[in-house]
């Protein structure tokens, strides 16, 4: 605002120069006066340009600072959205919203909003030239402000619907690209393109309608401004004829009116863009408010890796009924527990609650006697290893993925791989640990991804290990490696929770939990529970290991 004040005050140099030329230099014919005035104008204009450039740089740096402050928190909020009560975020739209808001705040439109408060100064100068000219300026400003409200009212609904349709279109396209393989294999391209085109066409229709109205209004605004400038010239000429003002005041009034109305005119034209940017900023604010920054780390004795659930109920954000109901259980430190049940029984939800990937809707989940809601992510990461159903490898090297993208030694990476019995498999890859994988582990087979993800879960020697379907994609060699890894982990006293459809891993558990429709149906020693599981293949695994 300070730089904007300097720029706008220095603009007065041009009309003042014009008045002095007509009122002093031309009547006197003084060349030295003309040179002195020209030099003063040059200094004023150079200073104005420098201040204008500096304020633009200040806005750019302010926007960059905003990004440094908010972007890390927003990234964490997007990742933590699964912990909130609302539906989880499935894409990075809030980060796009932050970029849209940041870009608008650093652009020319933001500068106009700093210039607009100085318009009354130029209107005041117009009144000093003559009250009638000042009145014309006030009427013009009122007209433009009225058009701004009309523009907002005419385009607000279409812009909001177009923005929503665009978000749906982008999200659908992201999903299509992510799962392109089954789309090609099953010939779904045409059907999906038609479905995507619905939102795309809706977006284009709304944008076109809003753009048409905005274009019509912009043309009318330009017409009004030209009419106002013509009126000022005509009124100024009339006042000169009557001897109320000097001839130079006509041109000074035209300059001042243009400067007074220019920010308002541009604000009317760019109001919708700024409104969309402000709406994006509000979206960012909502996401940040839903995921406040974590509190201070809590220190807990690392030797304790017990798990306690007290009357836990969990309702996923997008669901209307609980996935888990009133679950209470305790897993002692060093115990190995298997979790079985039909599809949709809530096994994966239980795994996510134990590792604090989700927070319970009701009840309490505690690790080491401390509720998971009070753990910070770094403190929890040192205690927990998690292998989800969708292993979720990220673009980067195998080394990066095993080391959880942290700065760590090669020794710790190799130790984790060896504990997962995957070291030799990695060495057989073209670039070993430096082999680059794509999104989701593209470039590796399903079994290789799962084994690398197991090594990632074991990185840092966690005290609590939760495995969700750890052998879903494994071959015989992978099954054998998993079996050896589980035996070694049991000897070290690691608390292990295994979610399983196939019963092979359950041969190594002390206790089995059986879920049914979100409720804990059975809980007891492995053999006693497995004998009650309705399957024809339990006899072998029910024998003592």
UniProtKB/TrEMBL annotation:
Keywords: ATP-binding, Membrane, Nucleotide-binding, Transmembrane, Transmembrane helix
Keyword ATP-binding attached: yes
ABC transporter domain span: 307-542
Gene Ontology cellular component list: plasma membrane; type I protein secretion system complex
Domain ABC transmembrane type-1: 1-276
An example Gene Ontology molecular-function term: ATPase-coupled lipid transmembrane transporter activity
InterPro entries in the cross-refs: AAA+_ATPase, ABC1_TM_dom, ABC1_TM_sf, ABC_transporter-like_ATP-bd, ABC_transporter-like_CS, ATPase_T1SS_PrtD-like, P-loop_NTPase, Type_1_exporter
Pfam families recorded: ABC_membrane, ABC_tran
TM region positions: 34-54, 121-150
UniProt main location, coarse: membrane
GO BP annotations listed: protein secretion by the type I secretion system
Topology with respect to the bilayer: Multi-pass membrane protein
Localization per record: Cell membrane
Name of the protein described by the UniProt record: PrtD family type I secretion system ABC transporter
Source organism per UniProt: Brevundimonas alba
Upper taxonomic lineage: Bacteria, Pseudomonadati, Pseudomonadota, Alphaproteobacteria, Caulobacterales
């Amino acid at each position: 605002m300070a730089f904007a004040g300097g720029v706008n005050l220095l603009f007065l140099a041009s009309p003042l120069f014009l008045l002095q030329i007509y009122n002093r230099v031309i009547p006197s014919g003084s060349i030295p006066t003309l040179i002195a005035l020209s030099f003063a104008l040059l200094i004023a204009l150079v200073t104005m340009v420098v201040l204008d450039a500096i304020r633009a740089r200040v806005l750019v740096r302010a926007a960059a600072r905003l990004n440094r402050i908010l972007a890390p928190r927003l990234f964490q909020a997007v990742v933590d959205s699964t912990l909130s009560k609302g539906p989880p975020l499935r894409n990075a739209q809030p980060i796009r919203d932050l970029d849209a808001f940041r870009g608008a705040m650093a652009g020319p439109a933001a500068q106009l909003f700093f210039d607009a408060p100085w318009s009354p100064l130029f209107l005041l100068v117009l009144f000093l030239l003559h009250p009638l000219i000042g009145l014309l300026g006030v009427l013009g400003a009122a007209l433009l402000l009225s058009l701004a409200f009309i523009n907002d009212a005419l385009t607000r609904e279409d812009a909001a619907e177009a923005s929503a349709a665009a978000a749906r279109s982008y999200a659908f396209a992201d999903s299509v690209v992510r799962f392109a393989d089954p789309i090609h294999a099953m010939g779904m391209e045409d059907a999906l393109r038609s479905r995507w085109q619905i939102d795309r066409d809706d977006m284009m229709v709304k944008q076109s309608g809003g753009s048409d109205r905005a274009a019509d209004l912009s043309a009318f605004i330009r017409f009004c401004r030209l009419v106002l400038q013509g009126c000022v010239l005509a009124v100024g000429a009339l006042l000169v004829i009557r001897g109320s003002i000097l001839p130079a005041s006509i041109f000074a009034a035209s300059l001042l009116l243009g400067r007074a109305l220019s920010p308002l005119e541009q604000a009317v034209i760019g109001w919708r863009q700024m409104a969309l940017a402000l709406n994006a900023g509000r979206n960012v604010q909502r996401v940040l408010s839903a995921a406040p920054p974590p509190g201070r780390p809590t220190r807990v004795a690392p030797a304790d890796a017990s798990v306690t659930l007290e009357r836990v109920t969990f309702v996923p954000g997008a669901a209307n009924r609980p996935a888990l109901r009133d679950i209470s259980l305790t897993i002692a430190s060093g115990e190995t527990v298997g979790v079985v049940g039909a599809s949709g029984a809530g096994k994966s939800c239980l795994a996510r609650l134990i590792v604090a990937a989700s927070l319970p809707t009701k009840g309490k989940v505690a690790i080491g006697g401390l509720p998971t809601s009070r753990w910070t992510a770094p403190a929890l990461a040192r205690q927990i290893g998690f292998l989800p159903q969708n292993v979720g490898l990220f673009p980067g090297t195998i080394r990066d993925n095993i080391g959880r993208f942290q700065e760590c030694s090669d020794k710790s990476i190799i130790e984790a791989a060896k504990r997962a019995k995957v070291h030799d498999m990695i060495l057989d890859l073209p670039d070993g640990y430096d082999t680059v994988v794509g999104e989701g582990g593209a470039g590796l087979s399903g079994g290789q991804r799962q084994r690398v993800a197991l090594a990632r879960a074991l990185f840092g020697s966690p005290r609590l290990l939760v495995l969700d379907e750890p052998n879903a994609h494994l071959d015989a060699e992978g099954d054998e490696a998993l079996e050896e890894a589980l035996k070694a982990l049991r000897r070290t006293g690691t608390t292990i929770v295994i979610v399983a459809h196939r019963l092979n891993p359950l041969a190594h558990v002390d206790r089995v939990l059986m879920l049914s429709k979100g409720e804990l149906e059975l809980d007891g020693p492995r053999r006693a529970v497995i004998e009650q599981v309705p399957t024809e293949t339990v006899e072998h695994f029910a024998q003592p290991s």
